């Protein structure tokens, strides 16, 4: 782990130095401690928590209070690592004023370091309003899950030349508005590489290929906890679903056979 903690302005330095940013989602203090110990650069309290933890069908149901609860938990577990918190659906789209109020709550109540919001040129004035009030912002382009239904599902974005051109303009608009980084989700790798090469700020890809300046995955997917989820972009680094099921089944067998607790795990 670097001696000097990474800061939001440090994201662009990392890009200049050619050092990829490692970002993972994190929703609680326990994993935050582990991820910080494993030298993850940035923790993302994603609104995906409502799908991953609460079993909801999309991110649209996440609320500001939920995001604040989880972000404050993550902050208690990770004391050095920058934490980015998703602004949930309708907490920033209605007006820049509401965005400032809601992002301000997130920052003040969680001690996080930045917020993330979805959208391009249309959100640039809001990004600028937040950044000029001292609230760092990470953008999010490509497949933007809060627009899942408008986009017709989890589909790669930017294969159509007109959509690709708009994404380039959106990325530049976010950078000009003061965004610290941009997440690119489900974007063809050549387009993501082009966009990354055209920006001073880093891109952080998920399903956007190796040309991005960093990579993010949903932690539970990387750990193999989300059994039914097999997108092309995901590499599983563990099979914790199998480990959990085997451990729990063995516990059940031991209890039923009266092997647990034994003397070693009992008080005299
Ligand atoms: O909510 C989330 O987890 C995200 C990542 C998929 C980038 O936005």
Outline:
This protein is α/β, with parallel strands linked by helices and 268 residues long. An eight-stranded parallel beta barrel has the order 1-2-3-4-5-6-7-8, surrounded by six helices. Helix 4 packs parallel to helix 5.
Could you say which overall geometry the principal axes of the C-alpha atoms support? globular
Ends apart, CA distance between termini: 44 Å
- Biggest β-sheet strands, sense, barrel: 8 strands, parallel, barrel
Which parts are unreliable, with pLDDT below 50 for 5 consecutive residues or more? none
- Proportion of residues in extended strands: 5-15%
What is the top-level CATH class of the largest domain?
A: Alpha Beta
Bound molecules: 3-methyl-2-oxobutanoic acid
Strand order of the largest sheet: 1-2-3-4-5-6-7-8
Q: Indicate the CATH topology of the largest domain.
A: TIM Barrel
Q: What are the secondary-structure elements, in order, as H or E? A: HEHEHHEHEHEHHEHEEHH
CATH architecture of the largest domain: Alpha-Beta Barrel
Put simply, the count of helices is 11
